[in-house]
Amino acid sequence: MIRRIQRFQALWVLPSAISLLLGMWCCGSSSATAAGLAIEVDARFNGAPLNFDAPVHLTGHGQRISVTRLDFLLSNLALHRKSGDWVQATNWFGYVSLRECRTNLCAPEIPSGTYDRVRLDIGVSSAENHANPAAYPAGHSLNPIFNGLHWGWQGGYVFMALEGHWMEASNQVNHARAGYSFHIATDPLRMSLDLPLATALDPDDKLRLQFHVDKVFSSIHRVRIQDESSSTHSREGDLLATALSQNIETAFSALCIKPAGSNGGLEKQATQQLMPL
Questions:
Q1: How many CB atoms lie within 10 A of CB 119?
Q2: β-strands 206-212, 37-45: how paired?
Q3: What per-residue confidence (pLDDT) applies to 18?
Q4: Scanning 4, 38, 144, 220, which has the fewest C-beta atoms within 10 Å of its C-beta?
Q5: Is the pLDDT of residue 222 over 50?
Q6: Which residue has the higher pLDDT, 11 or 113?
Q7: Could you tell me the pTM of the whole model?
Q8: Who's near 84: CB < 8 A, 6+ residues apart?
Q9: pLDDT score of 26 more than 70
Q10: Strand partners, 39
């Protein structure tokens, strides 16, 4: 029996490993070449790298939180040429799991060029959201076993899952902590990003998406975690889910990662305010 289980696990891991290797081969060490655009996702809190699991991050409400899960789906990637047209990556999806270090993506259909804006969605369209998830093979970003973001009990994907623990900063002596769980989902709450690039993305550059998690709690809306507002599953009319989704749309920035030795250093960050669609 144990051998059968091990054989099954090996058969499951193999396609995922092949998918990962193909993604690495797709982009290689370059970025916007004929092989595609390399994308990496980074998370920060109040300007510093996001630390997982420990309650060390202070929100605008003076609450100390930890992050134990931060997963989301990306789709509808498009880049804007300086000449004025948009280049769309068709049938492109990305699954990001920041705590598990699944942060590198590839967009093979993006051709070489110079771009000054990036546009994409957090979540998927209504068509994909209500399609049969079993149609996606192992290792595909929308495969429900691979991403763990599909609601089998009611259908549809969780577009973003943010989970962890929280405590009032004044209570850190007795370490009184409770959990929070924010699952942003359903068609009306698909989130759209339109991110400027202060420095144009050139053919050899990598695109970095930075997620400023502190803005989830303090941006358009100030979100204070309480017992009655410590979880959401995005039911119809859920004001907390709506506030979180609107904050998330302001919480990303885009950077160009220049190759080592290029003029201007390694990184150039967008300086304009993010503009949700």
A1: 17
A2: parallel
A3: 38
A4: 4
A5: yes
A6: 113
A7: 0.82
A8: none
A9: no
A10: 105, 207
CA 174 to chain centre: 34
The answer to whether 80 and 89 are in contact (CB under 8 A) is no
Provide the pairing of β-strand 252-257 with 63-65: unpaired
The answer to whether the Cα torsion of 211, 215, 217, 220 is positive or negative is negative
pLDDT(12) > 70: no
Considering only residues 6 and 93, tell me which one the structure prediction assigns the higher pLDDT. Answer: 93
- Going by pLDDT thresholds of 50, 70 and 90, the confidence category of residue 202 is confident
Q: Compute how many other C-beta atoms are within 10 angstroms of the C-beta atom of residue 157.
A: 23
Report the chain's terminal Cα–Cα distance, integer Å.
Answer: 53
Using CA of residue 45, residue 269, residue 74, residue 188, what is the dihedral sign? Answer: positive
Q: Compare 122 and 155 and report the one with higher pLDDT.
A: 122
Residue pLDDT, tens place only, 105-115: 999 878 878 89
DSSP reduced 3-state for 171 = helix
Mean pLDDT of the chain: 84
**Please, are residues 141 and 179 in contact by the beta-carbon 8 Å criterion?**
no
By the 8 A CB rule, do 91 and 168 touch?
no
Query: Is 114 exposed, middle or buried (CB count within 10 Å of its CB: 0-12, 13-18, 19+)?
Result: middle
Characterize the bridge pairing of strands 191-201 and 48-49: unpaired
Per-residue CA distances from 99 to 42, 103, 196, 236 (Å): 10, 9, 26, 29
Q: Where are the beta strands (DSSP E) in the chain?
A: 37-45, 48-49, 57-58, 63-65, 69-81, 86-88, 93-97, 104-107, 115-122, 158-168, 178-185, 191-201, 206-212, 231-232, 252-257, 267-269
Tokens 């900063």 belong to 169
What tokens were used for 129?
Answer: 């959201």
Predicted local distance difference test score (pLDDT) of residue 11? 40
